[in-house]
UniProtKB/TrEMBL annotation:
GO terms for molecular function: pyridoxal phosphate binding; transaminase activity. Belongs to the class-I pyridoxal-phosphate-dependent aminotransferase family. Its cofactor is pyridoxal 5'-phosphate. One of its GO terms (biological process) is amino acid metabolic process. It comes from Ligilactobacillus saerimneri 30a. It comes from the Bacteria. It is an enzyme of class 2 (transferase). Its EC number is 2.6.1.-. This is Aminotransferase. Keywords: Aminotransferase, Pyridoxal phosphate, Transferase. InterPro entries: Aminotransferase_I/II_large, AspAT/PAT-like, NHTrfase_class1_PyrdxlP-BS, PyrdxlP-dep_Trfase, PyrdxlP-dep_Trfase_major, PyrdxlP-dep_Trfase_small. Residues 32-378 form the Aminotransferase class I/classII large domain. Pfam families: Aminotran_1_2 (PF00155).
Length: 389
């Protein structure tokens, strides 16, 4: 029998992801080209698949330690240390069910009821939802007036207005904007966090897809108060394998392992052996994908600008965040009309919080063939020419 007294009130008020809902809705349209989800169109590299097959054949089908097999934790620490100038030990790594579980487990370990989490937006909405689920309260910080970058002044203002602030979320390169941060910008934010003794939850899942120079990790700059979240979904085209990582100070890891343990026990065993192969012998697996994403990015960026859109500076990830020209339909009206009349599905910026109004997010983790066709249809749509069934 339905009724509010029967369910968790926090869960009741949370909506199902409108991103996923619209993706499913658009999938029903004949001839639709979807630039909706952050799903690489590449396949997992063969050497990683072979490692998983061997693990199954070798009967690697039993429970592993909660934090993951020891050799994977050691190889993961080495992988991140060498790529991003970090200094982690194996004991400072937890293997998670994707970065998604890592976010939830980390917030569960950090938050007490009423603690505030500052979330720069536009951003993927999981951080806000997980904050509420874990008893905290989130405050969004609209970064659109500053080229989608959180400034130290804006952060100081937010801390002053919300003295219960405990955590600042960082996601860069950013989903949905593609914007990333320089060393100088990160150091300025780290100085504010250090001054106020704040944690930074740094989701760097797109680190290997950085197109303008090298990715700088917040964990290099503020190691004592940074929780680094990452995984293999984007870098190694392993979305369905569901392998992520939490890296952080040992005292934090000692708490987060409890959240992780009682949430999932441990990730799938054969997937961990695939991950071990990825971080041991797949250090350069992302390079081919990155080069192809860069090619697609430039093509789609030019096509959108030619069609009248202006874009956030897409320095990383595989998204373009494009401002809908004035005089056109906006937000959900634009997105649904585009899907119906042009057979191209994108996500409205509204789905990513304040600052996303009037924008659309397009994923270029699709084939170049589909990107070219989508770009052509968008151009026709903007000129009043519609898809012909």
């Amino acid at each position: 029998m339905a009724g509010s007294k029967n369910y968790n009130k926090t869960i009741e008020k949370i909506a199902v992801s409108d991103i996923r809902q619209f993706d499913s809705e658009a999938s029903q349209l004949p001839g639709i080209i979807k630039l909706t989800l952050g799903e690489p169109d590449f396949n997992t590299p063969e050497h990683i698949k072979e490692a998983a097959i061997k693990a199954i054949q070798d009967n690697k089908s039993h429970y592993t330690p909660n934090a993951g097999i020891p050799e994977l934790r050691a190889a993961t620490a080495k992988y991140f240390n060498e790529k991003y100038n970090l200094n982690y030990q194996a004991s400072q790594v937890i293997t998670t069910i994707g970065a998604t579980e890592g976010i939830n487990a980390s917030l569960q370990a950090l938050l007490n009821p009423g603690d505030t989490v500052l979330v720069p937006t536009p951003v993927f909405p999981i951080y806000m939802v997980d904050t509420e689920i874990n008893g905290g309260q989130f405050v969004t910080l609209d970064t659109s007036a500053d080229d989608f970058i959180l400034t130290p002044n804006r952060l100081e203002e937010a801390i002053a207005a919300h003295p219960t602030t405990k955590v600042v979320v960082f996601n860069y390169p950013c989903n949905p904007t593609g914007v990333t941060y320089s060393r100088e910008q990160l150091e300025a934010i780290a100085a504010v966090a250090r001054k106020h003794d704040l944690w930074i939850l740094s989701d760097e899942i797109y680190a290997e897809l950085t197109y303008s120079g090298d990715h700088i990790s917040m964990a290099e700059i503020l190691p004592e108060k940074t929780v680094l979240l990452s995984g293999l979904s984007k870098s190694h085209a392993m979305t369905g394998w569901r392998i992520g990582f939490i890296l952080g100070p040992q005292a934090f890891i000692d708490q987060a392992i409890k959240s992780h343990q009682y949430m999932v026990t441990a990730p799938t065993t054969n997937a961990q052996y695939a991950a071990l192969e990825a971080v041991s012998h797949g250090q350069n697996d992302a390079a081919v994908m990155k080069a192809e994403y860069a090619r697609r990015r430039e093509y789609l960026k030019t096509a959108l600008e030619d069609a009248g859109f202006t874009l956030a500076d897409p320095q990383g990830a595989f998204y373009l965040f494009a401002k809908i020209p004035d005089g056109k339909l906006q937000d959900w009206d634009f997105v649904r009309d585009l899907a119906q009349k042009a057979r191209v599905a994108v996500i409205p910026g509204l789905s990513f919080g304040p600052g996303g109004e009037g924008y659309i997010r397009l994923s270029y983790a699709a084939s170049m063939e589909n990107i070219k066709l989508a770009a052509s249809r968008i151009k026709d749509y903007m000129e009043g020419k519609y898809f012909d069934d």
